[in-house]
């Protein structure tokens, strides 16, 4: 068990909690309560009862994390029976299997049975592995969602994009440009899950009709722009294939990467877009930055990094109405860039401020340099926003999640139709 990371143990504790085996703190330590929960889980899943996280136990837990199981139709099965057998509900099965006729089940075919819990965890560090796992689970559960990748990170991770809706009003939301602001990824993923669940029943969220949104808008969401950086912040250099010694050196010799914002080339992705980039490079020296590091280094040219390039390419490829970039520094919404934004930006910004309770930033323009929303406003003269969702030292503690979600649920609905 020695080589299982603390974040993985938290992931397991969080799942055992969802399944009803574990009711204690999600602390990443394997102590008595966790061992008891593992034993009970093993017992109910016909595994050897060891209380240890051996490979077959971990595999079984990983299966559950996707939030669904496969069931082969047997003689006499009804969806109601199947739902009961797996302790879930019929509408989830119908949603996940749009091509299965509930009144004419074909013996021997396999159907997806979503388990009766939400799959995006909001009480643990949200690693790239959790993201992949959630994407797999959501794609099975909600086949109307579209998933793909807009590129690869420096270290070879996918830059996933999830698409909601098929309307003509196109918007882009993204999170985790900055590695230690990874809490913005589960924010977007949770919102996708809630939206999809309600949409599958043609319901409303906060008075917003999800079917109307689906038909009016297309929402492209890139929940983790900087997956290598997120990996570094949560698990250190262990799962990174790039030069680990070099990374630690750039991190001022520190093996704890909590202050790290950059990608693993040591480039601050939100200082790597072509908007005042040259001006920014002058400032960089004043900040004492002279090369790759945890933050504020703008790279050797705009879009030098595969992550910022992929984000810019996606944005160029679509005729968008607006974009949102999620960050965490101060509960404030940035909306202007050198006064180049269209007039409506202020009105939309005020509406977002009202919906979220965040402050709309003053018109002080000194802070804007080479960021995604700056570049978007400069190049497209359309409304672009940086939404800073929290206060305190990064990475924000995960127990701020519920409040952050509460503040942003309506804003995320609104942004697709305003
Ligand atoms: Zn940021």
UniProtKB/TrEMBL annotation:
Gene3D superfamilies: LysM domain (3.10.350.10), PGBD-like superfamily/PGBD (1.10.101.10), Zn peptidases (3.40.630.10)
GO terms under biological process: proteolysis
Cofactor: Zn(2+)
Domain (Peptidase M14): residue spans on this chain: 124-418
Keyword terms of this UniProt record: Hydrolase, Metalloprotease, Protease, Zinc
Active site residues according to the UniProt entry: 388
Annotated LysM domain residues: 69-113
One function term, GO molecular function aspect: zinc ion binding
Any single GO CC term annotated in Swiss-Prot or TrEMBL for this entry: extracellular space
Family, as annotated: Belongs to the peptidase M14 family.
Name this polypeptide is given: Peptidoglycan-binding protein
Organism: Vallitalea guaymasensis
Organism ancestry: Bacteria, Bacillati, Bacillota, Clostridia, Lachnospirales
